[in-house]
Amino acid sequence: MNFPRKSGILLHPTSLPGAYGMGEIGPAARQFIQALQSAGQHYWQVLPLGPTGYADSPYQALSTFAGNPMLISFDDLMKDGLLLAEELEDFPQFTTEKVDYGPVLSQRRQILDLVCDKFEKRASADLKVGFKDFCFSQAEWLNDYALFVSIKEQNELRPWVEWAPELVKRTPKALKAFAKKYDALVNRARVRQYLFALQWGRLREFAHEHKVQLIGDIPIFVAHDSADVWANQELFSLDDAGQPTVVAGVPPDYFSATGQLWGNPLYKWALHQKTGYAWWMKRMKHMVGLMDIVRIDHFRGFEAYWEVPGDEETAMNGRWVKGPDHDFFYAMKSELGDIPVIAEDLGVITPEVDQLRDDFELPGMRILQFSFCEGLEPHMEPEGFPENCVVYTGTHDNDTTCGWFRREPGVNNTETAEVIDAERYKVLSMVKTDGEQIHWDLISLAMRLPPHTAIIPLQDVMGLGTEARMNVPGRMDGNWAWRFEWEDLRAEDLERLRAITAWARRL
User: Mean pLDDT score of the chain, rounded to an integer?
Assistant: First the structure.
């Protein structure tokens, strides 16, 4: 696919303003799209949209096909007659500065349960027909997912490997008995998914009306405690008890002396190949139905992935194992055509990974913050970034530009003052300013560089510091919680972004 010279903003929907504890995909999302259009931006990039599990990470979802029902807009439910205003009168007033996930999710779940239980009574004829059609068209993943989350709920949210053996092994008799006994619970899960799909479809249509395209994120690996693994155990490297025999991660590198142990079960790629990668093709087709462009997280894993024994406590004792490589992307092109894909090619990248990306003409990624760090050669020299790539000031895993530039040694890092000062000197030498508005300096730099696409985290447009960081890799809590308020997104910042975008020939 040929990407035009454009730009956009990175923001997860949970970060949007709103009165109900976390961002939603309703009025605030539509207002944000209008703000993007006014600022001359053509893309809205989000993180994975699946229902979150442990640690609230969108990268460890309960399903790769399902949407996160916690993003459903209460305001839009009221417009559809599915929720009454008086039913929200006792909803708590949560802080608007961050998502306090524990109590927020608990309260939102109660409201959604009420909506689902009254759906048959309150839904219009069109909504009922839509629900029936949705259940039929999405049955292949929806039925397994609805069973999975319902069984999980009845087992105090314990991982599926800790359920009754007949449910772990998915014996037809046990699944049928559970579905019959807990029919109302299973139906709730289906209704929640229908409402998410309905609202997301409306949002995507609204985005297109305002000339904004949506960039989605699909992790290469899926969570072990997910409907995907439970329903397709034969496709993953598991033992007889369902536990992973080998797991995913990355080896020790510049950022971590012990590597990163992600814990995701690894694929039996030989079996996937025999099926023509059928499960993966369904996954990609589903994603294309939700998004205009798909960013594949950890793209390098298709060429080779870091395999760690399942009983290891760090990622140090792993090995590189050859992935499906070109064969997978030939299959995808044959099955789905030339779908727009961004290859997240960060980390330990070899010539073979570069070759795989380039042979299919996929744009990779370049991170401006990395380009000033010693030892990260693929990201050096911003002026030399290729045209066929996406440049970011930073990603959800980076500190904000202001936080990164003004960081101090020994505060959440192990860098010396000398290293930090050297990086600052490189930055200031390139942008030729005093660094007082470093976020605009690097936004301007990203915009004027050769890459056809530039993506800026909203935190950088707003000039926010480390307090607005979305995620710290390796930290188990306190992530994914940042939110903004409309009064903090100033009109003059949007106007300045539009001016820079026009100057950089990206309108």
Answer: 95
